[in-house]
Amino acid sequence: MKDSAISAHKLKKVYSTAFEKIVALKEIDIEIKKGEFVTIMGPSGAGKTTFLNLVGYLDRPTSGRLDILGCNSIELKEGRLSHIRVDKIGFVFEEFFLISSLNALENVQLPLIFAKKLKNNHNPETLLKRVGLDHRLTHFPNELSGGELQRVAVARALANNPEILLADEPTGNLDTKNAQGLFDLFRELNKEEGLTIVVATHNNRLGHSTDRIIHLKDGKIEQDERLVK
Amino acid sequence: MKFFILAYKNLKRRKSRSFLTIGGVAVAVAVLVCLLGFNAGYQEALTSDVDKMGYQVLITAKGCPYEAATRVLKGEAGLKFIDEEIYKQITSDPDIDQITPLLTQLVYDPEKKVGKGGFNSYVGIEKSYIELKPNVKFKSGEWFSSDDANEVILGYDAAKSGQKTEKIVGDRISIPGENTNLVIVGIFERTASLEDMDFFLPLKTTQRIFEAEGKLTSIGIKLKQIEKISEFEERLYPIASIQVISMSQVKGTILNLVNSAKILIMSVAFIAIFVAIIGVINTILMSVFERTQEIGIMKAIGASKLDIFKLIWIETLIICTLGGFFGSIVAIFGGSLTEILVRKVMPYAPGGKLLLITPELLLLSFLGVIIIGIISGLYPAFKAASMRPIEVIRSGE
Known about the structure:
By secondary structure, chain A is α/β, with parallel strands linked by helices. Chain A contains seven helices and ten strands. In chain A, helix 3 crosses helix 4 (124-130), helix 3 runs parallel beside helix 5 (146-158) and helix 5 packs parallel to helix 6. The longest helix of chain A is centred in the last third of the chain and has 18 residues, at 176-193. The mean pLDDT of chain A is 87. Chain A binds chain B through residues 49, 53, 56, 58-59, 78-79, 82-83, 85-87, 91, 93-95, 97, 99-102, 106, 109-111, 113-115, 156-157, 160, 168, and chain B through 1-3, 6, 9-10, 12-13, 293-294, 297-305, 307, 389-390, 392-393, 396-397.
């Protein structure tokens, strides 16, 4: 289990509303190794986002067991969770979610402020260079294109030198060219830094450029497809 | 880049809103500083006014004590007459150290205040007057040549202000409506009391001009021992037509009046502060709700509850600190404006500076507003900190 990045066992998540209970994940088992580049695919409401939120400690499972990098997340307290989140996990969202009052560089610096540590981190400028935005350091979000915004968001997700990068529909707001560019960047990071990457997407073609596709439907794993390169 | 800069940048994002909120706090602080400063200043000015009078006891004709008290300080000392016989009668009292008779008359002068018109106060005095008043000194000229000379000594401001040209010794003036010409023989130095506005004439001359022979309006007395005042008062009690007013009594009477005004004023100040607090909470809370998503993102990229709490709290503190700062500046420079206003409204305003804005007072108000900031920031900050990151992600779906 030493090389396990994400290990889910009978993971279940139920959302309760006033009228009904929605079972988003129905006791799924998933094992993702360190250094894997995995796609979660499936139609809307299949449980992709729910799974990523649970893995990213943004939400808590209803039942089951979830080990992230060897830590059982069910047992941990809120404070400890945000600590692990800031330390080990990077998040990229469909809507980029950059802070509009901060420029590109400041957005990337933000996680470092919350982490309160300066060692063992990537230099924000180097990161922006890494994602091909060294000419956009002082630009504000409203001055950047969709592709550039998502690259800033990726640089931000990498600021704390995480071990796992989670991306929820990262290409949802991007055109084909930029979407491909982003997946190329993911592939690069995966190869060169050994980063574990889990991407949720609708895009079949992009999904097939990764190592493995987990097909979800109605909160269940429909198919676990390993792609041979 | 630290939390402070992060908070500052957010406030800068909504400039007009932040500016208005800061303005609200500034107004509240300015009002508070001015009012507290006014209180301190008024008391000090009043005390100094009373001390400058030189006499501790004043005898006037019977009347409303409040009215008498105000008139005494205004220099109009009981415009009802008392008999000069009473003066002669009590002069020999063993407890009296010094005593001086006064006859004050008010005359409307249409030329006063450069044509606006106003009352001049003409005070008939004897030599004992300047002996009783330690701080009355001649700026130029000297005492009257005789007891009933047609001569006048001007208070510092009477010679200077409200006239087209400054009067000097040797000039002639006339009392409006009277036929007598008076020669200015002296001008007093500034005493920073209302007597600076007065015209001083020999007592006998005043009695003649105003057809009040044998009459006085008041008698100023300094006792050998102020503790003996009640015994002294008792001895004068049988004289039916007079009342004895001690200056400490006058001071107390006026301070009583001022104190009730003070309570009213302070409640206005506290309402201003209360409104400002609500304004601050509202502004911050609104910006918290507007930024629900942003706060969620910050949490998603590693911000702890405490981080968010700190961030929002610092924003509140910045608003309150800036408000306190600008409010203090407004109070320092706009304070004189309040003073002009207060002088118009108050029944009696002492000479000298009414508003006493000390560094301690400024510091106190400043600290106060920061404490208010700390308190009013608590709720929005707590509200923001307890937001769950997942709500953002869901709202984004």
